[in-house]
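Dear colleagues,

As part of the handover before I leave the project, I'm documenting each prediction I ran so the next person doesn't have to rerun anything. This entry is a single chain, and its sequence is reproduced below.
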Amino acid sequence: EAPLSAIYYCPHHPNKGLAGYVCQCNCRKPLPGLFLQAAQDFDIDMSQSVAFGDKIRDLQAAHAAGVPMRILVGKDARGIPEIIEPATHVSRSVLDALPLLSIDCKHECT
């Protein structure tokens, strides 16, 4: 069990959307703005962090923010994706990736 402290999202797009949201920003992945904001808000050391993502843009943003371990997870836990830059590892799901982190699932995991 892990607490959820916040949810971050980018409402911007570089060339379409509602007025006021059409702009170039640092929070739209693959830029690292959302990671950096979370690091500031919660005093997170990105060099000691792990990022999970199911899209390459997620891991590009994590890499740009200085996250050393970036795990590409499969869509809907159906298969293990092929490793591609900037992923450092791949896994079928976040749960299946726990051994990579030396974390034991203490619950009845299926």
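The two ends are 14 Å apart (CA to CA). DSSP finds three helices and three strands in the chain.

All the best with the project,
I.
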